[in-house]
Amino acid sequence: MYICICKGVTDSAIREAVIQGADRMRDLKACLGVAGQCGLCACHTKEVLDQTRMEQSQAEPLSSNTPHLYQTA
Ligand code: FES
Questions:
Q1: Ligand 1 contact via 4 beta carbon (within 6 Å)
Q2: Confidence class of residue 65 from pLDDT cuts 50, 70 and 90?
Q3: Which residue, 22, 52, 64, 71, could crosslink 17 as a Cys pair with Cβ 3.0–4.6 Å?
Q4: pTM above 0.85, yes or no
């Protein structure tokens, strides 16, 4: 789905950029151009950014110092 009509940027492109490390609005503006023209897409871009970051944090593996309840010998 197109999020930024002015620059032709989709939600998929925003998600991919976030996964690649663009984790702030200014990063997305710099690499994709979102919210750089009329600015109407800024709110939806931020929603996609926040949702993708939340999904990433939930998908992160447990750290090595986190005890495993089901650890096998
Ligand atoms: S819709 Fe994104 S800058 Fe206009």
A1: yes
A2: low
A3: 22
A4: no
In angstroms, what is the span from residue 23 Cα to ligand 1's centroid?
Answer: 19
CA 44 to chain CA centroid, nearest Å: 12
pLDDT per position as a tens digit, 22-58: 999 999 999 999 999 999 999 999 999 999 999 999 9
Task: Go through the domains of the chain in sequence order and give each one's CATH number.
Answer: 2-59 (1.10.10.1100)
Tokens of 34: 């979102």
Expressed in angstroms and rounded, the spacing between residue 48 Cα and the centre of ligand 1 is 15
Helix axes 25-32, 42-59, angle to 10 degrees: 110
The pLDDT of residue 70 is 54
Q: Record the tokens describing residue 31, joined without a space.
A: 């690499």
Indicate the top mutation candidate among 6, 25, 45, 49 to test ligand 1's pocket, ranked by most ligand atoms within 8 A of CB.
Answer: 6
